[in-house]
Amino acid sequence: MPDRRLDVLAIGNAIVDVIADADDPFLAAHGMHKGAMQLIDEGQATRLYAAMGPGREESGGSAANTVAGLASLGLNAGFIGQIADDQLGTIFTHDIRSLGVEFGTEPRNGIGATGRCLILVTSDAQRTMNTFLGAAQMLDAGAVDPVHVRQAAILYLEGYLWDPEGPRAAMYKAMDAAREAGTKVAFTLSDSFVVERHRADLLRLLDERRIDILFANQVEAEALAQVPDVESAVTALKEKVETLVVTRHEHGALAIRGGERADVPAEPIRDLVDTTGAGDLFAAGFLAGEAHGLGLERSLRLGAICAAEVIQHYGARPEANLRALAGDLLT
Amino acid sequence: MPDRRLDVLAIGNAIVDVIADADDPFLAAHGMHKGAMQLIDEGQATRLYAAMGPGREESGGSAANTVAGLASLGLNAGFIGQIADDQLGTIFTHDIRSLGVEFGTEPRNGIGATGRCLILVTSDAQRTMNTFLGAAQMLDAGAVDPVHVRQAAILYLEGYLWDPEGPRAAMYKAMDAAREAGTKVAFTLSDSFVVERHRADLLRLLDERRIDILFANQVEAEALAQVPDVESAVTALKEKVETLVVTRHEHGALAIRGGERADVPAEPIRDLVDTTGAGDLFAAGFLAGEAHGLGLERSLRLGAICAAEVIQHYGARPEANLRALAGDLLT
Questions:
Q1: According to the model, what pLDDT value does residue A3 have?
Q2: Please, what is the Cα angle at A8 between A6 and A9, to 5 degrees?
Q3: pLDDT by residue (tens digit) across A286-323?
């Protein structure tokens, strides 16, 4: 039995968020679809940045937000992602390490600047994301050490990173190491555009039983199964993966494993401010529950608690101590 | 009569804030005095950054925060301050320009990185600041164009910048241009350490009638006058300057001009979160009132409104539209 030093090792985009308020006409004028994520190149990023209002910078990246949540819940987490040797890379490194997350991917030069996500938050608390991946997409298989993967109980993979070739190779390498070591593989679909571009690939991963825990929101699940409603998606996907977790925004979330199914409502909130990071923090809570062997329902509840915290303030990293918010669930 | 294209032209530190939560033992362990500002060098900045928690980055700088407030109040403002040609410099430039502030100081290389202020916020909403000035202290007289100064109704100078030699020369040059052009000179003492280090210099500026509007908080006023209470400080200083403004935190503020004196209470607030920027935004409101010819009492009230906004959220730049908050005061 390998030494599981880490509860979760995640591979994802190493990104700094730039958060600004915007209104609907601004989104329309720049051809954005509210609530979506789109990839932009450096030129587009420069033009959009020049047009948007003053920003707040905070470390982000979907799986990186998840490990930040895991650390706040008291778990041992590691992160693999590519930064450049620049000031934004320094910020990303500081923020994730200061939470106690193990982050050792060496910064590299000559691969563009550290990635950033220009996030426009509208007064309805929706976030519209424009991601310049920069160095993040230059992650390659060399950044993954099979020994490292073996030390983790769960390997968590960010679907956003399935798009560029190098990171995909890195994730295949990590999945192979996980399979050999008995490390569970969790995968988040991240966005429906990932599903649309890689549906065959993703279904093959499921058919090959390379994924043990699949995270999807309702839209992503429906897109993957190519069905028009969430229950049909659940029916189609539940046989393909050991544990299926589907989040449904304000309608709560559900999980299915074998013959068991659990549904939980969303946690009540006081002020909805910025939904950025809701899915990332839900995953953190659920994975923490899994790591503690809480069972589906309590793991879902922990996910809902973590998601509720992060949507009540700007930014996708938790501000409160999630371990404290978890209360009895984690004692 | 010169064309006063700008209501206010400010000279100050071009700095990005790095804001993190901390507790009293952390401040003590790192030898900080709660509520104060201290200058640190690059090595100290690196060590402190490594020790502190995850940060939020937001443009800062005392006078830069003030012009951000002026822009939010609908005034025409310009800013002079030194950044390096790096990512933090890009962030500073973007944020201030996106508010409509004129900022044309060329970034320079080979003078160190763009300055940053490591701000630790404790649960009592006090901010303790550790400033690595970096490029900001390399501002020199070449950055000041007398023609530019002449276009402003008010020249606003940040006392923090009186400390390093180059910026002091830049401020002397600007004051000379202001005197020739009939531009009013406003000066903020910034911090009692500035007063302690430059008391003779500052008193000489007042005696030479180079300053028309002096901003001080209670502690700075007492330090400058070397008296133990605010009323004695007011008595000692009021003859030395056309307009004296003294802020007193939760006790409100007062202003004296000639035979006239006004006192206002602090504005009521709902949640005290982070006092960073309170004095900077108070100055913005007061200067906007002056620019609109509101008179002492209403200018003080506008200052109090702006200060109340900024202390109810993290960060030293306004988040709300101050013009809207000002309501009838500015119609």
A1: 73
A2: 90
A3: 999 999 999 999 999 999 999 999 999 989 999 999 99
Residue B327 lies in a domain: no
The token pair that represents B170 in the structure block: 């830049």
List the single residue in B49, B87, B99 with the smallest CB-CB distance to A94: B49
CB contacts of B55 in chain A (<8 Å) are 58, 91, 94-95
Considering only CA atoms, which of B214, B264, B219 is closest in space to residue B237? B214
Distance CA B141, CA A26 (A): 40
pLDDT at B82 over 80: yes
User: For residues B64 and B283, what is the distance between their CA atoms, to the nearest angstrom?
Assistant: 11
Q: How many CB atoms lie within 10 A of CB B47?
A: 12
Q: How many Cβ pairs within 8 Å bridge chains A and B? A: 56
Smallest CA-to-CA distance from A143 within A135, A154, A133, A153 is with A135
- d(C-alpha B197, C-alpha B207), whole Å: 18
CATH number where A110 lies: 3.40.1190.20
Question: Are B113 and B35 contacting, i.e. CB atoms less than 8 angstroms apart?
Answer: no
Quick one: closest CA in B to A49, which residue?
Answer: B94
Number of domains in chain B: 1
Pick B315's closest partner by Cβ from A50, A56, A86: A56
In the numeric block, the tokens 């008391």 are attached to B199
Q: Does any domain span residue B328?
A: no
Q: Where does chain A show beta strands of DSSP type E?
A: 6-11, 15-21, 37-39, 56-60, 77-80, 102-103, 115-121, 127-132, 152-158, 184-188, 213-217, 243-247, 253-257, 260-264
Chain A's closest residue to B88, CA to CA, is A87
In B, what residues contact A, Cβ < 8 A? 21, 49-50, 52-59, 68, 86-88, 91, 94-96, 98-99, 113, 315, 317, 319
A134 in Cβ contact with A166 (< 8 Å) = no
CB B111 within 8 A of CB B83: no
**Polymer length of chain A:** 331
- Residue A1, in any domain of the structure: no
Instruction: Kindly list the residues from chain A whose CB atom is less than 8 angstroms away from the CB atom of residue B54.
Output: 59, 68, 94-96, 98-99, 317
Q: Which two tokens stand for residue B318?
A: 């306004």
pLDDT in tens, B169-212: 999 999 999 999 999 999 999 999 999 999 999 999 999 999 99
Q: Are B204 and B174 within 8 A, CB to CB?
A: no
Q: Do A54 and B95 touch (CB under 8 A)?
A: yes
In a domain, residue A148? The reply is yes
CB contact under 8 A, A56 and B99: no
- The order of strands in the sheet holding A184-188 is A102-103, A77-80, A6-11, A152-158, A184-188, A213-217, A243-247, A253-257, A260-264
> At B217, which helix (H) or strand (E)?
strand B213-217
Q: Report the pLDDT value the prediction gives residue B290, as an integer from 0 to 100.
A: 95
Q: Do A57 and B53 touch (CB under 8 A)?
A: no
Q: Which residues of B touch A123 (CB under 8 A)?
A: none
B190, B15 Cβ separation under 8 angstroms: no
Q: Please state whether A242 falls in left (phi above 0), alpha (psi between -120 and 50) or beta.
A: alpha
Are the beta carbons of B45 and B118 closer than 8 angstroms? yes
Residue of A nearest to B92 (CA): A54
What is the domain range of residue B203? 6-318
Q: Report the residue of chain B nearest A95, measured CA to CA.
A: B54
Q: Which two tokens stand for residue B15?
A: 């700095």
Say which amino acid occupies B109.
N
